[in-house]
Amino acid sequence: MSNPPRDGEGDRAQRGGGGVRHMLRRPEVYRARKLRREMSLPEVLIWQRVKGGQTGLKFRKQHPIGDYVADFYCAQRHAVVEVDGAIHEQAAVVEHDARRDAFLIEEGYRVLRVTAADVLRDADAVVEGIVAFAANPLHHACGMVPLPASGEDLA
């Protein structure tokens, strides 16, 4: 017996109507789906703690952004979290990560990198840091700069 149809590829798609065309999806979507199925242990440990809005913020795992796939993404705060294993210390990967971070920052995302070793050492503390990062934007909305509170120097 064959597997059931996926992605709207049922009999309507065979007749030419309805379902989603296989070729219309970006390659990043397929890569993200594969990465979701093959998450590393540190990624799984983080996901267990942030999924379903347990932290008060909603995160997505392995979310495509442009040509890249973010390990974790918080749409509410435009925050990207990357879990870096030992391979991220290699020169070629460091350069790739720098290009990726520059692209994400240019597109308005905030990027936080955490090491896999830190996650394995204390996943709860890493998740607390992730939530603090995502919950506290570094800039104020509409480009407004807050005025100093009374008694604070302007210098």
Strand residue percentage: 15-25%
Extended strand count: 4
How many domains, as an integer? 1
CATH third-tier fold name: Endonuclease, Chain A
Provide structural commentary.
It contains 6 helices and 4 strands; from the N terminus they run αααβββαβαα. By secondary structure, the protein is α+β, with helices and mostly antiparallel strands. It has one domain (about 25-135): Endonuclease, Chain A (3-Layer(aba) Sandwich), CATH 3.40.960.10. The protein has a 4-stranded mixed β-sheet, with helices on both faces. β2 (about 70-75) and β3 form a beta hairpin. α3 (about 40-50) crosses α6. The longest helix is centred in the middle third of the chain and has 16 residues, at about 90-105. Mean pLDDT is about 80; it is low at about 10-15 and about 140-145.
Short characterization:
The protein is an alpha+beta fold.
Topology:
Elements: H1 11-14, H2 27-37, H3 41-50, E1 60-65, E2 68-74, E3 79-84, H4 91-106, E4 110-115, H5 116-121, H6 123-135
Parallel strand pairs: 3-4
Antiparallel strand pairs: 1-2, 2-3
Helix pairs in contact: 3-6
